[in-house]
Amino acid sequence: MMNIKKLRKIEWSIPFCAIILSIIGLVALFSASYDAGLEEFKKQALWLGISVLVMFIVMLIDYKIIIKISPVLYGIAIILLIAVLFTEPINGARSWFEIKEVFSFQPAEVSKIFIIAFFAYIISIIQRKGKNEVNRIPKLLLLFLILAVPLFLIIIEPDYGTAMAYIMASVLIIFVAGLDKKYIIASLVLIAIVLPITYLYILPEHAKERIETYLNPESDPLGSGYNVLQSKLAIGAGQITGMGILKGNQTQLGYLYPKTTDFIFSVIGEEMGFIIAGGVIVLNIIIITRMIQVAKGIKDEAGAYLTVGIAGIFLFHTLENIGMTMGLLPITGVPLLFVSYGGSSMLTSYICLGIILNISSHRKTGIFNK
Questions:
Q1: Is the peptide bond before 158 cis (omega within 30 degrees of 0)?
Q2: How do residues 331-348 score in pLDDT, each as one tens digit?
Q3: pTM of model > 0.70
Q4: Euclidean distance between the first and final Cα of the chain, in Å?
């Protein structure tokens, strides 16, 4: 059990900010789902209560136990990601397990924790033989293989947004672990070569359409560019203080879609205005920066890398979701954590916070401060 001394070390500002974000999300969902009988609002409120409770339970579990069993968790993640490929597609993707049309479960969401924990565990083992071990080609290939297997399964669902979240988290962990600059430069060169080839010969048509919409949404304002243009109109219409709950034109007249998930930030911008929308951004920045501070204060390498990986996931979701609603990034269907509608996303996010809170209770001298 956690003693009083450890409780005092916990970074309570992180769940405090997350709960504020969740409340803002509930208010936005109330407005966005009002015309549909508030069904999504009610479900989200229930999931919030369950998720906060689970967060406190996870907080009491020593994170080292999670690290220790991460090989088993990784195996479970792979099995779930394979199994979901045999389900019926929903909106063209096999990403969900549906249980009697009452409960839906997205394996790729929960698998984030399992895979990042295993990734952090393997790097910590590699570095026991020396800090530079991570730069050896065989070790890098091993890390690449660990990430490539779940990535491949997620991409063929397809779910490119979640795949990018995995990549962001893994890249940050390897960078913090001391990846040599030559590999970073080589990776950038490789990306510059692979991206155009991927776009021309590998990406499916709907993915290309999203990129083209991002580059020039005005070229098809009633088709592929419709959603992002309506989103930008909604955010702009909110101005400083917003149009008021249940009073947003794009939200209430049905022009904004999907308004409870991908474009929930647009609802906030339109009906609550720049002040609240800006507050959402600030709260996410606080959560991510405080996670980095926790990583800096923990001596155990595996715990520090796990924290950095979780921070990477949160960073990607924040940048991508808010960026796509403003037309700054391509639309990928990535939710805004704690805010967008979705039980799997909400539960996974609070489980991540529970792990972070436990790690923060072990803070001493960080591996970044040696």
A1: yes
A2: 888 999 999 998 889 999
A3: yes
A4: 29
